[in-house]
Design a protein that fits this description.
The protein is 54% helix and 10% strand. It is of the alpha/beta class and 387 residues long. The protein folds into 3 domains: 19-223, P-loop containing nucleotide triphosphate hydrolases (Rossmann fold, 3-Layer(aba) Sandwich), CATH 3.40.50; 230-304; 308-380, Arc Repressor Mutant, subunit A (Orthogonal Bundle). The relative contact order is 0.11.
């Protein structure tokens, strides 16, 4: 790792910043064989947190295996089942012969088979010779526990972009089957051999599943990573520049760190640009230029987000950008042309569904993306903002 300002991949060890309490909480939950739902917006450090938890567990000499799938491109039940099964099987088997034997032993009497031709062409281990039925789904979802017990190993199953399960036809059926399997495993095994971690970059969609609709209620612990202390971030940045023989004033950094609201992805990207632009002492013009560069990189995405909004939705966003949170007051409705309090509710729901805003514990609306918040205030609505 050449730079302290890493933003293109997850980080662990000395590059992992803050959140020690979160690491301990999640490590303890996994040690107690609990399942975890991890909530957080895009690029908020969820993957780094998970990997840091695994690193700490390995340093503590805890024995476990991991399997991971990403549902980013998964839009149907069959693909989900096959990809999940393949990921789990590859943890416990490595050769085609082992794949064949394992599928035969674990999926006898189901429609799952090992097809050598399909494996040769696509690398997929599991094939289906008919549409999956309830028995097939149960056998597949039980597989992680079954193999972990047979091999006497702990398995941690990570499912990323889990909110995409809502794209499946009959997705409630899959979630209900997953709940049933977790309950079943707990009923005859005091300490299950498998735990799962569910995460997703669509914050509101994950909240809908696990907070509002309460899927996996009492079957998984919902956890939101804590904010990272601003002083820790400041020291991290100072150390990063010092490693390259560069100097920066701590107080000058705080404005950028505050503007980006502690989002380490944006912060590391921003200061990596600063590092590239500078040769020695980092002055304020460098920070201003780096911020403009960072905004320019993301501006096409931000423009696309705004083009997708109706005039009413833009008006509500303007009200939020100008500091209003009680949109249903007669004054705000009149000033911003929001039509009615009923329309305000529809607008808030629409912006939340588009993952532009979310709601605090006090149900006040807030922007999810700090850089988008800065851009929409300064460049879209033309506010004068101090750096």
């Amino acid at each position: 790792m050449d730079s302290a300002f890493t933003y293109g991949s997850f980080v662990t060890g000395k590059y992992f910043l803050g959140r020690k309490k979160d690491v301990n909480i999640l490590s303890n939950l996994i040690a107690q064989r609990e399942n975890i739902v991890l909530l957080g917006g895009p690029k908020s450090g969820k993957t780094s947190l998970i990997q840091q938890v695994f690193l700490q567990m390995r340093l503590e000499k805890k024995s476990f295996l991991t399997a991971e799938i990403n549902l980013r491109d998964v839009r149907d039940t069959v693909t989900f089942l096959r990809r999940l099964g393949d990921a789990v099987i590859r943890v416990f088997a490595t050769t085609p012969a082992e794949f064949r034997d394992l599928v035969a032993s674990q999926f006898s009497g189901t429609h799952f088979v090992f097809d050598p031709r399909s494996f040769s062409e696509s690398g997929g281990i599991l094939s289906l010779n008919w549409d999956p039925d309830e028995k097939d789904i149960h056998a597949l979802l039980t597989l992680p526990w079954s193999l972990a017990r047979i091999r006497e190993e702990r398995l941690i199953l990570v499912l990323r972009e889990f909110q995409n399960i809502r794209f499946f036809d009959g997705w409630e059926k899959i979630l209900r089957a997953m709940e049933d399997v977790v309950k079943e495993q707990r009923s005859f095994l005091e300490k299950p051999a498998c735990s799962f971690i569910l995460s997703g970059s669509q914050l509101n969609a994950m909240k809908d599943l696990f907070v509002h609709w309460r899927w996996f209620y009492r079957l998984a612990e919902v956890h939101t990573p804590s904010p990272i202390d601003e002083n820790e971030i400041t020291e991290h940045v100072v150390r990063g520049f010092l490693a390259g023989g560069k100097v920066v004033d701590r107080e000058m950094l705080r404005g950028a760190i505050s503007l980006l609201q502690g989002n380490l992805h944006y912060i590391n990207h921003f200061f990596a640009i600063c590092d590239h632009l500078s040769k020695g002492y980092i002055m304020e013009p460098i920070l201003i230029e780096a911020l403009a560069d960072l905004v320019a990189i993301h501006e096409p995405r931000f423009n696309a987000m705004m083009y997708d909004l109706t005039n009413y939705q833009v008006n509500l966003l303007r009200a939020l950008a100008e500091g209003h949170t009680r949109f249903s007051s007669a004054e705000v409705i009149r000033q911003y042309g929001l039509n009615s309090s009923a329309n305000v509710k529809r607008l808030k729901d629409a912006l939340a569904k588009k993952e532009i805003i979310t709601f605090s514990d006090g149900e006040e609306p807030v922007f999810i993306d700090p850089l988008f918040e800065y851009w929409v205030k300064k460049y879209f609505f033309g506010q004068k903002l101090d750096f």
